[in-house]
Design a protein that fits this description.
single chain, 219 residues, nine-stranded antiparallel beta sheet, 3-methyladenine DNA Glycosylase, Chain A
Amino acid sequence: MQDLLYINDENDNTCLESFLHIAETLMNRHLLKVRDHYYRIVDCEFYYNSRIHNDPYALTHEQSGNCGEWNFHGSGMDITLTSQHASGGIMIQGIASVANGHEVPSKDSATSGPLKVCSEIFQHVGSVWADTPLHFGLVPVEQSIGRGVIEATIFSVPRIGLNITKDNHGNFSKRPYRFLTFLHLPHKEGEKIRKYLTLEAEEAISPVAYQAYNTGRKW
């Protein structure tokens, strides 16, 4: 898992490329398993602080331990991005249940918001007794449900809920470090997502294309 979470922080561009590669791996190549339930990660945010990539918002995601561990905190849960010279995490903002025979997640199957994600996960944890096996973590798609899943387009937009007074000259509050799939699902701050993707993104999409993604006709 550590290799899958490797970040090349030579500069800001290589960091963003690494974030996108990791997001692709998590969102299209793996499922989150909680006992007998499987979920796709459909919304996540990256927080990463190193000497080269000085993200002030990553300071709230600092933790001890190793890269690739779960970190539960007051705002939700992260996949840790800890190394000898860096700290941070990938906050899980949204998940969608994988139902048999349905490759495209439905709105009813989606959970949006980091604390709601935690609630959805923990309601399936099961028995309090230690001798009851608990299978919780990421699994490759091929080893989980016995078939592939549809490959979704990944969109990158700025993170949400950031206090801009904490920002430094790097304009980290505006960087597209939030990654989304399946725009027809409920995602927090949907209007800001639409505006950014159609007007502000470096590779903006047309309103017609956005409407197709937003209505579930494209993914």
